Amino acid sequence: MIRAIAGVYDPNATDALRARVVSALEPDGAAEAIQDGPLAVAWTAGPTSSPGGGEEPLCVLDGHLTNVGELAERAGLAPGQDPERVLVGVYARFGEGMFEQLRGDWVVLVWDRRTRRLLVARDQVNARPLFVRIAGDRVLFGSEVRNLLRLVDRRPAPDRGAVARWLGHSRLPPNRTLYDGITRLQAGHLLRIVDGRAALRRYWTPVLGPRLDGSREDLAAQLRAHVISAVERRCEPGVTAITLSGGLDSTTLAAVSTRCLPPERAAGRTTYSMTFPGDAGSDETEQIDTTIAELGLANTRIAVESSGILSGSLEYLRTWELPPTATTLAYWLPLGHRIAEDGIRIILDGEDGDDLFGYSPWLAADLLRQGRPLAMLRLLRRTPELSDVPTRRMLASAYRLGVKGSMPHVVHNVMRRVRGPGVTVPAWLNDASARAYDESEVSWQWKLPGQPLWWTSRVDTLMTGGFPASLFDHARRRAAMAGLERRHPYADVDLFGFVDRLPPELAFDATFNRPLLRQSMAGLVPDRIRLQARKMDLNTFVDRCIAADLPIMRPLMRADDAEVRAYVRPEALQELFAPTTVLTTTRTSHGHLGFRAWRLMEMECWLRSQERPTFADDMLARADGLARPVYTFAHVVAPGADAERKPTADQGASRGA
């Protein structure tokens, strides 16, 4: 069950605190609440099945658990009980040790009335959110930043280091947000309050298990079985659908659901897609048609003719009081609403497949540490990016991945202090932002003594770092704006544990990324998709979207009162948004100017909304200059497909603008 949660722990609490936490959830719907001494907690989506009372703790679950049956058995409970009731029994037996046993996408709150202990934990993979603010002995927590903003007495100032990192398209420290003092609880961590003392601590640490033995064919078969299980754990019949691109990862989900799961456990046979028929570099209609034809599926698709980015970004800003981290919202939201209108509640997509099944380049550093430089060079040649590049470029990559990669974390810190911030900090940031950017550097903190670098980097990339947190935050919020729940088959603790026990060199291939996944899906995924090496991107379409927004944004960005001038050199801002500057997301000698401009525009809107809360509404109400998406919908059914969802009356050719 998807809930929103908000709470305050305050030793000086008054009776008004209960109403305060209820009001913090106003954007999320009607809320239940309790106040017990210093603690007030509210949650949406109806009463909890474990309201507490007597010696029994209050237990609130946001999300879903994939191992409820196993948990009930461990706690000696009868099968078939509500998940929150099961959690009460598991907590009674294992205490805090309960959390490391939970699987799925979840946040769990436990208020132990007997010991006066509060525990709020989140899952191991960043799927469900929790944000915290600790100010002295007063602790605020909530499912989203917007909930905390309704609990604080005064809106926090921007965090300069986080803003600088966000503008530079660099990773934020995993516990930071754009608001000073509001912390993202990291994956595998919990908030604990005992005797009035609050602490954030790790309850779960990934462990690299023994390497799996077996032939490549045997390991591919085992990988197939684990992927099937991960998909099945996240499907609910009748209300689950797959968002399908033309790539390997989402097609794998569709193939597994269609060909491996019983109908009562599978996703629906209607898939949903975005297509770009006017942009050959971005469009995957041909691949999508191949998939639905071979798998016997139906597909509802939005064909986007043109769009800006800003209209979707402003909707996101108005809803979440944060800027988005992706460019597709303006035309994804109409598709999301169509999915919800079809009765779908849960969507699965293939995001994160590249990182889970792809190769870790830092295996090169491990080989160099072992004194095997020739093996390192041979390994790097077995990557699609370096298989046939000139020797000079190959050696440059070997230096970056092997030599620099093998250095201990402390060496990077020393080198950065010696060189100063000028080498790694974007030159267009002003001095204060440059210092904050440099001080918040976390790029090499994943290097742990005594652990293989290929593995610690993957743990950071997939589970505990800032990138998965921001990726999942955005995807979850985007789905919620359409009334949907997004689940992550590839963000699965057990699947992750299996993949990390595979010999890491099996992920290297001179032609294909994710070669073992491709082998494991032989006979399931159409070969047209399984054996395609090229991966589409949206860069050319995004370039057009940025250009469409410039008439309304260029005057704001070049104005003397532009808010981003507090973070960026004014002359750099003037030059970037000059009418003669070509803004493209393709890398040039000056960097990715299009992405830089997009980030600056998003940040300008967010900063202005801090001073003027109606800014997003005012911009959306403008009739001039705001580029809305232009699109049509189509519903395509493969010959012989038994698609259970038929198009609504306007689904064959609806047009939005």
TrEMBL record:
It catalyses: L-aspartate + L-glutamine + ATP + H2O = L-asparagine + L-glutamate + AMP + diphosphate + H(+). The keyword Amino-acid biosynthesis applies. Keywords: Amino-acid biosynthesis, Asparagine biosynthesis. Pfam families: Asn_synthase, GATase_7. PROSITE patterns: GATASE_TYPE_2 (PS51278). GO terms for molecular function: asparagine synthase (glutamine-hydrolyzing) activity. Transmembrane segments: none annotated. The keyword Phosphoprotein does not apply. InterPro entries: Asn_synthase, ASN_synthetase/amidase, GATase_2_dom, Ntn_hydrolases_N, Rossmann-like_a/b/a_fold. One of its GO terms (biological process) is asparagine biosynthetic process. Residues 1-196 form the Glutamine amidotransferase type-2 domain. Its EC number is 6.3.5.4. Pathway: Amino-acid biosynthesis; L-asparagine biosynthesis; L-asparagine from L-aspartate (L-Gln route): step 1/1. This is asparagine synthase (glutamine-hydrolyzing). It comes from uncultured Solirubrobacteraceae bacterium.
